[in-house]
Structure formats: structure tokens, C-alpha cells
Structure to design on (772 residues):
């Protein structure tokens, strides 16, 4: 038994040591392991960037539909794609009729002007149907793509005439297509255009960005057109492509403009300073907690510190692996808070063990009873914190979400490490003769 | 054994005085309008931060520039923070708060920034931070916050009801949540007293306190649950008192550890002037400290008062029955 316990003890320590090593170095003896602390995505309040809430301002104060918001979101995503800002979050909020945008500064950007950036990204999309250069039409009348796909500027009609654009399935071919419908004026303009460009491509542009260039196959006079796409309708990629194209075309006729009523632009330098300070604070807090535990609880306190290290490292790894959200400054505060909460369970257990020792139980019995009786208290206490974290996650906004997230992960992990890691370590150590002295557990030794 | 539950009225009075004092100051400062200092999320407005080469600049000059450029008054403050690129040096900042009840248009914001840059001979690439918020955003945040407080309290009562059936869970849950409301009131009092601007960090702090303060209460409840099986004949006040005393070192130590962490972060943030973190941790410290106090002295005492009240009613009913 003794040898077995010793083995368990060293196994636990070895696992914690390896996890710590991985999370701070990012590799394990040459093998690159994903999920080190460096893979955690910092939020814009650390890396610098913009968060904005763009409200849809309609002329008649009506609320935009989800479809319209999706369309506006699509425009913003396309613009960010072109600016090569990929690590962004764009979400719609139907209740408020708004689009939430969070994006980091572009690498190498020297001019930090959040207003200008938002203005560019949120402006109403200008959707145009344009004639293409004759040199870019192949013998079959299809458009020849190149790197730039520059617009010619010969605008035949604008997207504002589009009444609807919807993805649909072609019943005969089984392929995906987008059905377009124009209003009265658009119908006339589109009829002229299709007459002029029969058997030639017509290019669709959003601002200066090339979207698509289908070939005109017929002279369309009723204002209802279909853009046929390749691919099968059971193909997810084809469905997504059709949906994307429909949303983009719709964006030209959105009945609102976006107004950035809430803009928060953070310079990267200030964010970096805040990060450094917070990380330093975390290290100091960790050391203080360890000192407190060792002074108060002696031997179990030392073990609790090892378990706490395991818990903290595991939490960082989980955040990095799950990669669900960016981590903001309040998120970091959440991690530090759970460092404190992480030892709570240990304190509850150790106090219980002390109590049992005082009542005259043997060390072994006291440890067993201590863990068993403390379990319900720890479980119930952690569940209530989890309830608050989940509610905060549902109702929270912006940087606070990250706090709810780290708190949630931290509480679950601290519960798991306290009832497993701490337990294995303290039980195996208690078997050693040297660890039998009750002074080590913070109980006054009474000579019998 | 010290009889803490017996002294419960002193604790009720102490908490009452603190909350009452907060209420008085609240009304002296103008009640609903002015009792709380509102952050720009509630007031609306624009805050601009610009990196300055040093600390020797004239804030009055900046105020005048804003007035001349867009005709609005501004409040300008000096600030400095930790410089991540050169830890020996500081990063100097100028904080401008412009307008209230309305935000600056994008045009006006750009105009102000370029005017300040040229008047103070700043680098074209000087770091700027802009925070512009419409006043109704604050209402949204407040609404969501109140909903969050309601739902978390609701689920906590349900959970305690289920888990602590033996000590009539519903009343235990309700008393625990009453103690939480006490903590929230104390946090509000601190905000009123120290004129701290109310913002969304406050809501997050309140929810954390709701979740965490329950920790201490649960530790005590758990012991009452255990003891009520062992000591069936003991009067309720003594049973609860014994449970509180037995778990006292636990309650205090767990809070000390958590407070140790949060206070450390607060001190680091204050020394280095990291405003967002300082604003976030301060209410947490107050709430967590109050949470420990209320778990030990308020929640269990309220529970005893309520149980004794029920018992008296029962006895009275019985007496009435036997008389009839």
C-alpha cells in the first residue's frame, strides 16, 4: 500500500509539473503542443482595437428584421475580410436592432483612429450592377476572373432597386440559385441592361469589391431574375454560397443606415500596460495565497499550493484549448478571483480534518471523514457560484462576458482538483511516518 | 461558547445604521437625480484619451480648444499610467470628457482630436482612446443587470430549497437571499458615500458577490443541516449558534484568501492607474467583505428569527386549539 501511495503522489506531482511546463513553454521535448498561454486570444482591451455597437436607424423608426440585420452584418464581414481583419466578432442584436462589432487593430496599423475605422466599415453598402470590360469576356460569354476584378465604373443599375434576393433550390437541376426581384424602376433598368448584355456577363460589386459576374442568358423584362450557381443543393458549401450572395445583394437596399452610438477604441499601448500589471498582480496574489495556506495549514497547506498550481495551469490550458472567447481584463480578474476560490475547498476540508483530529480521531480516520463531510458543503457552495456565473454569461455584455467565462471554468476546475488532486496527495503523504506529527496539520500536540 | 445569535439585534442595528446613513446621503445629494454618480454609460457622452509627451501641459488650454472647435465644454484631467514599452518611464495621458446627455458626432470627434494634436504639437500617431456612449445604453445595461440579479437569486433559492430540505429549505433560501440583498445595499452605500461612478462593472461585481457570498452562507447552512440530525432536541437558536461558531474559522479564512487576491489586484491597478481594473475590483472587495459579515451575522440570525416566529405561531395556535 505504502509504495502504491508514494507512486500516486509522485504521479500527481509529475502531471502538474508537465502541465505547467506545457502551458508556459508551448512544447514538450520538441513536440509542439497547442494550447499554451500564448495561444489565448487577448481581448481588444488588451491588444487594442475597437468595439462598437452600430444601431440601425430607419427613417420610420421601425425595427429592422433579422434578415436585414444579417445582410448588414454580411456587408461588415466582407469589408473586414478585405481589410484582412480576421480575428473579429460581428454579432446581431435583434432586440436592439443593432450590430455589435469587435475587432483588433490591424497589425502594422500606425494610425489609431477608431472613428474613421468605424465610419468606413459601417457605412451603407453601395451595390452596383456593372458592365465589364470587353477584354475580360471569354468566347462563351463568361467573365474571366483575375486578381483584382476591378470595376469598370459603367453602372447599369444600383442595388437599391432590389426588392428581394433569396437563395433557392432549382427543382430541375437540383443546384442552388439566388432569385432576384426588382421594383418598377429597377425592372425597367434591368430589362435595358439584360438586352444590352445578352450572352455577356453582368458584374455585381459591393463598393469596389467584386461579388459575382453571372452571364445574362435572356432579356428579362418582368423584373424577376435568377442567378444560377454551381454545386448541388445538398452541398452545404453551395447552400452557404447562395445565402451569402443573397445577403450581399440585399445589402444594397437596406432601409436603414448604421449609426455607431457606442464606440470604444483602445490603443494597444495602454492595453499592454494593463496586461503586464494584471499578470504581475496575479503572480503576487498566487504567492500570497500560498504563504497564507502554508502558515495556517502547514503540511496540507503545502499540498494545497501544489493543487492550486495544478488548478491554475489547467484553467489556463482549458481557456486556451476551448478558445471560445477572447480574454479581456475582467476575464483576467476572474482567473485571479478563482485562484482565491480554488483554495476555498481546501480550507473547508483542512478545517474539517483539524476538527476531527481534535475530537480524538486518528490521522487516517480524520482525513477520510474530513473529505467525506466537507464534500456536501463544497458542492453546494460551488453550485451557487456557478449559477451566478451562468446568469452573468447570459445577461452580460462586452468584456464582462469573459469574466463570467473564466469564473465558470475556474469554479468547476477548482471543485474537481480539490476533491481529487488534494485528496490523493494528502492521503499518500499521511502514510509516511514523518508526516504523522499532528503539529503538521495545525493541531496542538497534546501529550497523552 | 460565545452566543452570537443572541446578540443578533446589535448586528441588525449596525447594518441598519449603515444602510440608513447611505440613504440619508443619497437624498442629500439629490435622490434619484444625483444620489448616484453616473458613469458615461448612464450619462452619455464622449471620453477621449490622448497620449502626451509629459505632464506639463495646460488643461485649461485643452478645454478652450474644445470650446473653440466644436462649441462644447469639456472636463480635462491629467493622468498617467504604467508604460509597457519602457518600465522606467511613465505614459502621460490627457483625459477629456465632453458633453453629457449626448455624444459627439464622428465628425466632431475627429475635429477635436486633430485640433488637440496640432495645438499641443503632438505626434500624428499619438495614442488615442475614444469611448463614446449614448445615455440609453446605460438603461439597457441596468435593465439586463436587474434581470440577472433577479434570475440568479431565483435559481439560488430553488437550489437551496432542494438541497436544504431538512432545515425547511425555502425559508433558508429566502433568508440567504435577503442577506445577499443586504450585501448589495452595502455596496450601493459605498458607491453613494465615495461618489464612485456607477457602470457595468458594478453589475458584474454584484453578481459575483451574489454567487460568492452564498459560499459562506452555505458552509454555515451545511453545518446546521448536519447538526440538526445530531442534535434534534436542541432549540433552534442554540443549534444555529453552535454551527456558526464551529464554522467560524472556515468562513473567515476562505474570505481572507479571496480578499487577498482581489486586494492585490486592486493595489496593483491603483498604483499603476489601470482604471478599468480598479473600477472592477473595488466594488468586489466591498461586496465580498460584506458577504462574509452577512453570512455569519445576518443570514443565520434572520433564519433563527423566522423559525422562532413560526414556532411561536404554532404554539399559539395549539394553545388556542386546546382552549377551544
Amino acid at each position: 500500500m505504502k509504495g502504491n501511495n508514494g507512486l500516486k503522489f509522485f504521479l500527481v506531482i509529475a502531471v502538474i509539473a508537465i502541465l505547467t511546463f506545457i502551458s508556459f513553454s508551448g512544447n514538450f521535448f520538441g513536440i509542439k503542443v497547442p494550447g499554451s498561454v500564448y495561444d489565448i486570444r487577448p481581448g481588444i482591451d488588451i491588444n487594442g482595437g475597437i468595439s462598437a455597437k452600430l444601431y440601425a436607424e430607419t427613417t420610420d423608426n421601425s425595427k429592422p428584421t433579422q434578415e436585414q440585420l444579417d445582410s448588414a452584418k454580411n456587408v461588415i464581414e466582407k469589408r473586414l475580410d478585405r481589410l484582412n481583419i480576421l480575428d473579429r466578432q460581428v454579432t446581431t442584436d435583434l432586440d436592439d436592432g443593432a450590430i455589435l462589432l469587435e475587432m483588433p487593430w490591424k497589425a502594422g496599423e500606425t494610425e489609431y483612429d477608431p472613428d474613421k475605422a468605424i465610419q468606413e466599415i459601417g457605412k451603407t453598402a453601395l451595390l452596383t450592377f456593372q458592365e465589364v470590360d470587353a477584354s475580360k469576356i471569354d468566347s462563351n460569354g463568361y467573365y474571366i476572373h483575375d486578381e483584382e476584378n476591378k470595376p469598370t465604373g459603367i453602372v447599369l443599375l444600383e442595388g437599391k432597386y432590389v426588392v428581394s434576393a433569396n437563395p433557392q433550390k432549382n427543382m430541375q437541376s437540383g443546384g442552388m440559385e439566388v432569385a432576384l426581384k426588382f421594383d418598377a424602376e429597377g425592372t425597367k433598368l434591368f430589362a435595358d441592361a439584360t438586352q444590352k448584355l445578352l450572352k455577356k456577363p453582368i458584374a455585381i460589386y459591393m463598393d469596389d469589391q467584386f461579388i459575382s459576374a453571372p452571364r445574362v442568358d435572356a432579356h428579362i423584362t418582368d423584373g424577376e431574375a435568377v442567378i444560377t450557381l454551381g454545386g448541388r443543393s445538398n452541398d452545404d458549401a453551395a447552400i452557404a454560397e447562395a445565402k451569402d450572395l443573397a445577403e450581399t445583394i440585399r445589402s444594397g437596399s437596406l432601409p436603414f443606415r448604421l449609426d455607431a452610438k457606442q464606440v470604444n477604441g483602445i490603443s494597444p499601448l495602454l492595453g499592454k500596460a494593463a496586461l503586464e500589471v494584471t499578470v504581475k498582480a496575479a503572480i503576487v496574489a498566487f504567492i500570497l495565497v500560498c504563504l497564507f495556506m502554508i502558515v495556517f495549514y502547514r503540511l496540507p497547506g503545502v499540498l494545497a499550493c501544489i493543487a492550486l498550481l495544478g488548478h491554475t495551469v489547467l484553467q489556463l490550458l482549458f481557456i486556451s484549448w476551448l478558445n471560445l472567447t477572447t480574454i479581456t481584463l475582467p476575464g483576467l480578474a476572474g482567473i485571479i478571483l478563482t485562484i482565491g476560490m480554488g483554495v476555498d475547498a481546501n480550507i473547508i476540508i483542512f478545517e474539517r480534518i483539524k476538527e476531527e483530529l481534535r475530537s480524538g480521531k486518528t490521522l487516517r480516520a480524520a482525513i477520510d471523514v474530513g473529505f467525506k463531510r466537507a464534500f456536501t458543503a463544497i458542492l453546494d457552495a460551488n453550485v451557487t457560484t456557478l449559477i451566478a456565473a451562468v446568469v452573468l454569461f447570459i445577461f452580460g455584455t462586452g468584456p464582462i462576458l469573459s469574466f463570467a467565462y473564466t469564473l465558470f471554468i475556474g469554479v468547476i476546475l477548482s471543485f474537481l482538483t480539490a476533491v481529487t488532486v488534494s485528496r490523493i496527495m494528502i492521503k499518500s503523504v499521511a502514510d509516511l511516518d514523518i508526516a504523522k506529527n499532528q503539529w503538521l496539520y495545525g493541531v496542538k500536540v497534546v501529550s497523552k | 461558547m460565545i452566543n452570537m445569535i443572541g446578540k443578533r439585534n446589535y448586528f441588525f442595528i449596525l447594518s441598519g445604521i449603515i444602510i440608513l446613513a447611505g440613504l440619508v446621503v443619497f437624498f442629500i445629494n439629490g435622490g434619484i437625480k444625483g444620489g448616484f454618480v453616473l458613469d458615461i454609460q448612464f450619462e452619455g457622452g464622449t471620453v477621449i484619451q490622448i497620449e502626451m509627451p509629459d505632464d506639463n501641459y495646460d488643461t485649461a488650454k485643452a478645454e478652450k480648444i474644445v470650446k473653440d472647435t466644436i462649441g462644447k465644454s469639456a472636463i480635462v484631467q491629467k493622468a498617467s499610467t504604467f508604460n509597457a514599452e519602457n518600465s522606467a518611464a511613465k505614459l502621460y495621458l490627457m483625459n477629456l470628457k465632453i458633453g453629457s446627455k449626448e455624444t459627439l458626432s464622428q465628425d466632431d470627434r475627429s475635429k477635436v482630436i486633430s485640433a488637440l494634436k496640432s495645438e499641443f504639437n503632438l505626434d500624428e500617431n499619438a495614442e488615442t482612446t475614444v469611448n463614446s456612449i449614448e445615455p440609453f445604453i446605460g438603461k439597457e445595461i441596468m435593465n439586463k443587470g436587474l434581470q440577472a440579479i433577479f434570475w440568479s437569486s431565483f435559481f439560488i433559492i430553488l437550489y437551496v430549497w432542494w438541497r436544504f430540505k431538512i432545515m425547511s429549505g425555502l425559508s433558508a433560501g429566502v433568508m440567504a437571499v435577503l442577506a445577499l440583498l443586504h450585501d448589495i445595499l452595502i455596496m450601493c452605500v459605498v458607491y453613494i458615500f465615495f461618489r464612485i461612478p456607477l457602470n457595468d462593472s458594478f453589475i458584474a461585481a454584484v453578481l459575483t458577490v451574489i454567487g460568492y457570498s452564498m459560499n459562506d452562507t452555505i458552509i454555515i447552512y451545511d453545518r446546521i443541516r448536519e447538526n440538526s440530525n445530531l442534535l434534534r432536541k436542541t432549540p433552534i437558536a442554540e443549534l444555529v449558534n453552535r454551527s456558526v461558531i464551529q464554522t467560524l474559522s472556515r468562513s473567515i479564512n476562505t474570505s481572507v484568501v479571496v480578499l487577498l487576491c482581489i486586494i492585490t489586484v486592486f493595489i496593483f491597478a491603483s498604483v499603476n492607474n489601470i482604471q478599468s481594473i480598479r473600477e472592477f475590483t473595488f466594488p468586489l472587495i466591498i461586496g465580498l467583505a460584506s458577504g462574509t459579515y452577512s453570512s455569519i451575522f445576518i443570514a443565520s440570525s434572520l433564519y433563527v428569527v423566522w423559525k422562532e416566529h413560526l414556532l411561536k405561531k404554532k404554539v399559539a395556535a395549539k394553545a388556542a386549539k386546546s382552549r377551544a
